[in-house]
Amino acid sequence: MRQFGNFSFTFFHQISSSTLSVSSKGSAEPQQFFTHKLPNKPCFFYIKHNDWVKLKRKQENRQFKSLNWTNVIAKGIRTVHPYCSFGFKRYTVKSLGSRKKCPAFACSGYCLFEDCSVQVDVKVESEYSLRADVIFHGDMMNHRLDQLKRRRIRSHARTKISKKLSSKLPRQYHLESLMKLEEDMMESGCRDDVPTTGVLKNIAYSERKKTGCIRTK
Ligand SMILES: [Zn+2]
Asked: Which of 44, 77, 124, 168 could form a disulfide with 105 if both were Cys (CB 3.0 to 4.6 A apart)?
């Protein structure tokens, strides 16, 4: 049975591929970090054809009307580098019917951890192959051991979770997701796949309201 308390104590004995570093950075208390090398080049993943078709249905000029693209891209990045939690700052989609030689899709993101300087560019050159090339900037990721970060749950990811919450309680869902995390993911502090119980309660509540199981007035 995995223990969820006293992580920083047990990490010293369990770290394998990743490393733990200590830095004082001028503060009285030395900070402990989870560090890991970024994956070797080339890095890429393929966007599922179905996912792309659904995104394109919501395209308007050079943008998507839904934020589900952030779920699709973040999930793809996790297959090559699972430890950072990415937020996205800009993106562009090739206009429908455009003959210009520009990528079908491109976006830039950054790691949400305060001490981590990792940034990422994702580019899909061709809509036929749907190969998404991932270019990381920065040599090493750096996450403080006392920090946890997770992406906001939006769009389709929210709907998917709300369906699962029809058969289990938010706290149960949270604990089960936590139990599924590998040791190195646990150490990295990235909790993209482990929503908090509070967030899950909100999702369950909104769903019940939508389906009329709760009277709002
Ligand atoms: Zn990071």
From this structure: 124
Same domain, 206 and 105: no
* pLDDT of 35 above 80: yes
Provide DSSP, the chain.
Answer: ----S-HHHHHHHH-SSSEEEEE-TTSSSPEEEEEEEPPPSPEEEE--HHHHHHHHHTEETTEESSTHHHHHHHHHHHHH--SS-EEEEEEEEPPTT--SS--SEEEEEEE-STT---EEEEEE--TTT-EEEEEEESSEEEEETT--B-PPP-HHHHHHHHHHTTSS-HHHHHHHHHHHS-HHHHHHTB-TT---HHHHHHHHHHHHHHTTSS---
* Higher local confidence (pLDDT), 30 or 214: 30
The domain tally of the chain equals 2
CA of residue 198 to ligand 1 center, whole Å: 24
Task: Quote the ligand 1 centre to 174 CA distance (angstroms).
Answer: 22
For ion ligand 1, residues whose CB falls within 5 Å: 84, 111, 113, 116, 118, 141
User: What is the Å distance from ligand 1's center to 113 Cα?
Assistant: 6
Domain hosting residue 57, numbered range: 36-149
